[in-house]
Amino acid sequence: MADRAYSSRAIRNHLRRRGIRAVIPQPSDQVGHRLRRGRADGRPPAFDAEAYKQRNAVERCINRLKQWRGLAMRTDKLTIAYQAALHIAAVLISTAA
Predict the structure, then answer these.
(1) In terms of domains, do 2 and 35 share one?
(2) Is residue 24 within 8 Å of residue 47, measured between CB atoms?
(3) Are 45 and 2 contained in the same domain?
């Protein structure tokens, strides 16, 4: 799953070759270019709005976790310390909401 910034034809082809279903909305300028080319450019790429909403929720959660400097910069050397900080941040975020 990716954002609009990653909706180029090359990236979509790469995802398709690897068997990954893209959940990328097509930017309005690309829609215009595709329509202008007519049948030569084919059908519009698939877009699953429900999957994109779920991706957006996960991304917002990750951004809230990144507000913790230690998590964003990955300063903990041990995995167990990083996971502990992640759990503490998650608990504090969920109780604050």
Answers:
(1) yes
(2) yes
(3) yes
pLDDT digits (tens, 9 = 90+) for 37-46: 776 666 666 6
Residues 44 and 78 in one domain: no
Q: Would you say the pTM of this structure is higher than 0.70?
A: no
The residue with tokens 């909401």 is 97
Question: How many domains are there within the chain?
Answer: 2
Highest mean pLDDT among 4-8, 24-28, 72-76: 72-76
Domain that holds residue 4: 1-52
Helix axes 49-65, 79-96, angle to 10 degrees: 110
Phi-psi region of 78 (alpha: psi -120 to 50; beta: other; left: phi over 0): beta
Residue 90 CA: distances (Å) to CA of 4, 59, 60, 82, 97? 28, 14, 13, 12, 11
Residue 66 is encoded by which pair of tokens? 């990144």
